[in-house]
Design goal:
This protein is mainly beta and 64 residues long. Helices cover 8% and strands 31% of the residues. It has one domain: Roll (Ubiquitin-like (UB roll)). The chain has a 5-stranded mixed beta sheet, with no helix packed on it. The chain is globular. The N and C termini lie far apart (39 Å).
Length: 64
């Protein structure tokens, strides 16, 4: 199980890119952190989520 923004999900073994493709997140407007480390967008395809990982996804919202 992988904890994403506090929710336990059965996504161990998937890449960050694979997980994001199943969500409504806009990859251009988010930051992803795994176990306290920022994952660069260029690494989404290569970063495999492991059992016990803790992931935080933050969306950037513009406004005025």
């Amino acid at each position: 199980m992988v904890k994403v923004n506090g929710a336990e999900l059965d996504i161990a073994g998937k890449t960050v890119a694979q997980y994001l493709s199943t969500t409504n997140y806009d990859p251009k407007r988010i930051a992803v952190e795994r176990n306290g480390d920022i994952i660069f967008k260029s690494q989404y395809d290569a970063t495999i989520l492991q059992d016990g990982d803790s992931v935080e996804i933050v969306s950037f919202v513009g406004g005025g």
